[in-house]
Design brief:
Low-confidence stretches: 225-229
Radius of gyration: 24 Å
Strand content: 15-25%
Structural class: alpha/beta
Mean pLDDT: 79
CATH architecture of the largest domain: Beta Barrel
Oligomer: single chain
Number of domains: 2
């Protein structure tokens, strides 16, 4: 291991025989400012090691200064002497929204797993069903838009990849449908599609016949949270068109 890298890990307590027990210890021993600690809290970094949820860690960090006062600059001392508040816990939906917003991914359930009942009620089947369907079978599925592309050699045909908790679906959107539903094709973050499966060996595409912008369903994910969340993470599709 590189010595400089090892020293940095030791400073952060990763290689230390004396692990951090509180946010206050991280602040004093690692000499990390409140701003950086807040960003770590927003990324849920204190849950695995200290057992602190986002809001609990954020509340503790708000009581810290840029540097410790000399009176408290010793082992066992702390400036955080006030009792812990009774903060309302986030629901799983809001935690997932926060994960994607700050980290770009989540180790919790996929967002569509929480929306599956609502999607099923509207007739949408998982992407896995499209991948395993028979050739020319009609199916209705939905997913978060991962990639949009319209190669110059495709003569106006758009290719799109959707993702849900079961896998991905690769769409083919012919030029006539693209021109008819251009706004939905370019702007929807959660897209519903009605189409037919096109199977050639192990290669499976879904030829779209109709598109649906399911933004209202996606917004209901944050409604399940303890308060309003930011769904800007859902706009991070890779657009090549």
């Amino acid at each position: 291991m590189d010595k400089a890298f090892g020293k940095m890990l030791t400073r952060l307590g990763v290689l230390s025989a004396d692990p951090y027990r509180t946010v206050d210890e991280v602040w004093r021993r690692a000499q990390i400012g409140p701003g950086a600690l807040s960003r770590l809290a927003e990324a849920d970094a204190f849950r695995p090691s200290l057992g602190l949820a986002r809001r609990e860690a954020g509340w503790k960090i708000k009581g810290l200064r840029e540097a410790a006062l000399p009176l408290f600059d010793q082992a066992g001392a702390s400036e955080l002497n006030e009792p812990a508040p009774d903060l309302k816990a986030m629901t799983e939906g809001r935690e997932i929204v926060e994960d994607y917003g700050h980290v770009g991914l989540s180790l919790r359930r996929h967002p569509l797993a929480l929306l599956r009942d609502e999607l099923a009620g509207q007739g949408y089947r998982p992407c896995q069903a499209a991948a395993g369907g028979r050739d020319r079978q009609f199916i209705k599925t939905a997913g978060l838009v991962l990639v949009r592309q319209m190669p110059g050699t495709a003569k106006g045909v758009m290719f799109m990849t959707l993702e849900d908790e079961t896998g991905v679906s690769n769409l083919v959107i012919w030029k006539t449908l693209y021109e008819k539903q251009r706004r939905v094709a370019l702007s929807a973050h959660l897209l519903g599609v009605e189409g037919r499966i096109q199977r050639e060996g192990d290669v499976v595409h879904l030829v779209a016949y109709k598109l649906h912008d399911l933004g209202a369903v996606l917004s209901s994910l944050q409604d399940r949270g303890a308060d309003a969340g930011d769904l800007s993470w859902a706009k991070r599709s890779r657009n090549f068109c």
